[in-house]
Structure formats: C-alpha cells, structure tokens
Write a structure and sequence with these properties.
about 0% strand, two-stranded antiparallel ribbon, about 450 residues, single chain, mainly alpha, globular
C-alpha cells in the first residue's frame, strides 16, 4: 500500500459520525427520515382524539363509525404484497406517491359530504399508507442494514419520534377542534403529509447504493453495509412470495407475534378509553390524559427495546417486551375486580383501582413500545436481500388483518362480561399477546432465540 492510499483511507476512517453512524451514508438520511416522520405524526396525533367525534358530527351510528375506522386497514391488508414489491424496485417514488395520496385522502375526509365519499377517502388513505409505509420500511431497513450492530437503536429512534409526535399532536388537535371544528383536524394531517412528502424528495434512493457509488470512498474497494449489489431492488419470486416465507417457521412465529401485539393496540382504541372514562377521575378527560401518558411512555419503552435488541437480539427483546405488555393487560380485571379492595383516594383523588388500572396500562404501553423495534429488527434480519419491503410487509399485513377483527372480538367479550368481570376484554387482548410471544419463541427455535446480528 503506498503512502497516498494510506492517507486516503485514514481520512475515510475519520469520517464524521452521528451516534456511531457514518454521517453521509446513514446519519443524514436517517435524520431527514425521522424529521419527516415527526412532522407527519404530529398531524396524525391531531386526528386520533377526534375520530369518534367526526362520526357523530356527520350523523353516523356507532357501527358505521366502526366501518369507517377499519376501512384503511382493509385497503392496507389487500395491497400490502403489491406495495411491498413495488417498493423493492425503488423506495423514494413509493414514499412520495404514497404520501401524496395520504394528503389527498385526508383532505377528502375533511370535506366529505356523505358516507360514500367518506369511505372512498378512507380507502384512499389505506392505499396511500400501504404504498408509502412499504417504501419507508424498506428505506429504514436499507439504512439500518449498513450498521446492523446499531439496528435496534435506529428503529427505536423512529418509534420514539412517532410517540413524541403523537403526544404533541393530540393536544394541538383538541385546540383546533375547539376553535375550528372536527373537520379541521384532518387539514392538519393533510399539511403534515405534504410537508413529509417534500422532505422525502431530499432523501437519497437507497436501493443498491454502495459507498463507492455515493462517491465517499477513495479506495477502489467499497463496503456494502449489508446491501447486495448487482440486481439489488429486483425482488426474486423465489424469495419474496409470502407463501414461501410462511413455509419458514421463523416467519410464522414473527407473524403470529405481530397478530398478538395487534390485539393490544385494538384494546387501546376500542376498550381502554371506555374503561378509563368509567374508572378515572374526570371521566373522558381522565381517559384522554391516560392515553397521552401511554403515548409518552413510548419514549421510555422504545429506547429500552432498541438497546435490548442490539445487546440480546430481537427475539429476546420481543419476547421480554411482549411478556411485559401481556402482563399489563391480563391483570386489568384484577385491578378492577369488585371483590378486591385497593383503597379509596390513595393519591390525587385516585382510588386504588384507578391507580392500579393506570399503572397497568402504562406498563402495557412501555412493553408494546419496546416490542415494536424488536419485531421490525427481526423482520429486517429475516428479509431476503433485494425483497426487503415485500417480506417486511408480511407481518404488517397479518397485523392489519388482525386489527380488522380484533375490536369486534373484544367488543363481544366486553358485552358478555359487563358487570361481571370488568376489564375482561383487556385480559383477552393480553392473552392473545402472550400466545404471540409463545409462538415466536417456539417457532423460532430455542437455538435462535438469543441470536444477535453480527457486526458488519
């Protein structure tokens, strides 16, 4: 090696880093992606508290409102495979086009004059999300794959940013609704989606990129950072077909675990607010405060999950986090049991059962937030090269499918146990989460449970 080459390599070794990530190849694109997600989920947070109010304003029954809420999930389930395959051809176009459809759909929701137009707009939202999120998952997998030893923390950063955005957006949405009406909140998410779309245009295309192609390596040899070269971005039918993936027990376990987690999130939307309003001081206000606190707890759970994923592997992290979140939900009927006296006015006007219920929901939220990065990291680890977005859409689709039916199932349990076992529906959701964890462990194989991705 001559002197000039040695100097050139030394300069490359001293390339600027961000939290241990090379700034030009990973750090800067990751920051832009996280900024766009932060802005987007401020808008999403503004909409979440207003969805039930919107149905009432346009004169929908509770059943019709449920259909409207689940419509995007139906579209996402049906289009997940197609969207993933297209995102594996190019990330940026999928992200930009999908975000444009999201913006148009939310605008359509805000001005919909009747149920038919509203359903079309909500279907459009599902289509836009399916396309955009496939590209986003693929790009995040590309970036995280360039430094696999930091994959968990990178994914945790995304989860934390989403949680923070929602926590900020929720009260802003409440203010907008009070000042301008329910429909105005959907204009907030429209503006957020347009802002994210603009930021996406500044992101690099990550499929097939190497350091040599980006002009950041002086040496003739370049590292791939976990990305394949050549035909990267052209998914192989032999590896990308979901039927072939599901013949692998590891993908089965991951999909089952995602289904279990979806029951918990369905409980957050369908049953926890109702229970909180009846148990906590302030009724609906107390329920809203609990949901905000649960969202903020993601800032605790996500970093824990990311750190544990990098240290012990995604299977261990997903299993421990899943057990934590399952325990939080399963114990809710115990906290609310009329046969157990936990005391009155323990602190701040909270009764014993209210305090215990609040603690358990926060525990569930921390566990769920910690499990998210682990499940995503495992999907990235298992995904075949060149078909990452297609493969990673599989567990997401199983989760979406579960989310369509889970609120209805939990509602049936709530109706059947009203006045007998308060919170039984939460226990059912927790049991489903537990089944998912057990499935992940058993189907992954005990030899693989503690497997940690090796450093590149």
């Amino acid at each position: 090696m001559n002197k000039d080459t040695s100097v050139e390599l030394t300069e490359n070794d001293e390339e600027s880093t961000l939290f241990g990530l090379p700034l030009s190849t990973i750090g800067t694109p990751l920051i832009l992606l996280l900024i766009s997600q932060f802005i987007l989920f401020i808008g999403v947070g503004a909409v979440i508290p207003t969805l039930p109010l919107y149905g009432k304003e346009v004169g929908l029954s509770a059943a019709a409102s449920g259909i409207v809420v689940s419509t995007p999930a139906v579209a996402m389930l049906l289009l997940a495979n197609w969207a993933g395959k297209n995102a594996d051809k190019a990330r940026k176009p999928a992200m930009i086009i999908g975000m444009a459809v999201i913006a148009a759909s939310d605008f359509g929701t805000s001005v919909a004059p009747n149920l038919a137009v509203l359903l079309i707009a909500r279907l459009g939202l599902g289509i836009g999300r399916s396309v955009s999120e496939s590209g986003e998952r693929g790009m995040l997998a590309d970036l995280a794959g360039r430094a696999p030893e930091l994959r968990g923390r990178a994914l945790a950063a995304q989860q934390a940013v989403i949680a923070l955005g929602i926590a900020i957006g929720a009260p802003l949405g409440g203010y907008v609704v009070e000042q301008y009406g329910v429909r105005a909140s959907f204009l907030c998410v429209t503006a957020a989606a347009l802002s994210a779309m603009v930021i996406y245009t500044f992101l690099p295309e990550t499929i097939g990129k190497t350091e040599e192609e980006d002009g950041i390596i002086g040496s003739k040899k370049s590292k791939n950072y976990g990305l394949a070269t050549g035909d990267v971005g052209v998914p192989s039918d032999e590896t990308a077909e979901w039927s072939k993936l599901l013949s692998d027990n590891q993908w089965r376990g991951l999909s089952l675990c995602q289904c279990g987690a979806s029951f918990g999130f369905a409980a957050k939307i369908a049953t926890i607010p109702v229970l909180a309003a009846s148990v906590l001081p302030g009724g609906a206000v107390g329920a809203g405060a609990l949901l905000s606190a649960a969202g903020l707890s993601g800032l605790i759970g996500a970093p824990i999950g990311g750190w544990l994923t990098d240290r012990a592997g995604p299977r261990v992290s997903a299993s421990l986090a899943g057990l934590t979140s399952a325990a939080g939900l399963i114990l809710v009927p115990v906290a609310l049991s009329p046969w157990i006296d936990l005391g009155d006015d323990i602190i701040g006007g909270f009764s014993g059962d209210a305090a215990a219920f609040t603690a358990l929901i926060i525990l569930w939220s921390i566990g769920a937030a910690a499990q998210g990065p682990a499940l995503t990291a495992l999907a990235q680890e298992l995904a075949p090269t060149g078909a990452e977005a297609t493969a990673m859409a599989l567990p997401r689709a199983t989760g979406d499918g579960t989310y369509i039916v889970a609120p209805f199932v939990l509602g049936l349990v709530a109706d059947a146990t009203t006045g007998v076992v308060p919170g039984a529906e939460c226990a059912v959701a927790g049991a489903a989460t537990l089944v998912g964890v057990v499935g992940l462990v058993l189907l992954s194989g005990l030899d693989n449970v503690g497997k940690v991705t090796s450093k590149a």
